[in-house]
Write a structure and sequence with these properties.
By secondary structure, the chain is of the alpha+beta class. 55% of the residues lie in helices and 11% in strands. Helix 6 packs across helix 7.
């Protein structure tokens, strides 16, 4: 049995862990990893698999993995993918999910970070793509007195006006579209911090038998 997303979002344990995750990320001064980010990644993860014709069960598992993927931040930012995967398995089995399905979600969450992660399933691949696609100025929460003197991670996110994914099943192409204000940061700045993530996205798309494409300000770069 797969829990409904509404039940997952309102679960008291999930709410407590996500609140603590947000608290720690804010204290560290990192970009936002809140319920907003989790909700977007959940939605996009499911949409990727649905667009590729996967079963509704796989879509729902991807949505669940997307929503829970960052809960390990409540333990520590370091190795948050692995600690979050274990937390998610415990929560999902408590909510009645089969050990097999919960392990599938656990594996996806444990592989979503670019430092150690790899696309090892359709769910993990969709999660990787959805997570890395969420680049937006609203993710910078700390006060920035002078955007031009901010660190490169903050500048890249502050420059991002919009980001979204498209999936073309017929041509087997998954495209990340980003619109950035080049007065705040250059396209090269984006690649400097996100090159590893884009490599992982390419591998994730390949696992789904697709090609990965990156378009920034209307120009195809990958």
């Amino acid at each position: 049995m797969l829990p409904e997303m509404s039940a997952l979002r309102s679960d008291s344990e999930v709410e407590a862990i996500m609140a603590m995750s947000e608290k720690q990320i804010e204290a560290l001064g990192f970009t936002e990893h809140s319920r907003r980010h989790s909700g977007i990644v959940s939605k996009w993860s499911g949409e990727i698999l649905r667009s590729l014709g996967k079963s509704e069960e796989r879509v729902r598992l991807a949505e669940i993995a997307g929503y829970l993927h960052d809960i390990g931040n409540c333990v520590n930012r370091k190795d948050h993918a692995q600690s979050g995967a274990i937390l998610a398995y415990r929560i999902l089995t408590r909510l009645g999910m089969s050990a097999h399905d919960a392990a599938d979600v656990m594996m996806a969450i444990g592989n979503h970070d670019e430092q150690y992660g790899l696309p090892v399933s359709d769910i993990s691949s969709a999660l990787i793509l959805a997570d890395k696609a969420d680049v937006h100025k609203s993710r910078v929460k700390k006060p920035i007195a002078n955007v031009y003197k901010a660190n490169i991670h903050d500048r890249v996110n502050l420059a991002a006006e919009r980001s979204y994914l498209t999936v073309e099943k017929e041509t087997a192409v998954i495209t990340l579209h980003i619109e950035i204000d080049t007065e705040i940061c250059s396209v090269m700045d984006y690649f400097e911090i996100y090159f590893g993530r884009m490599q992982l996205c390419r591998r994730a798309a390949e696992f789904l038998a697709c090609k990965f494409s990156l378009i920034i300000n209307g120009v195809a770069l990958l």
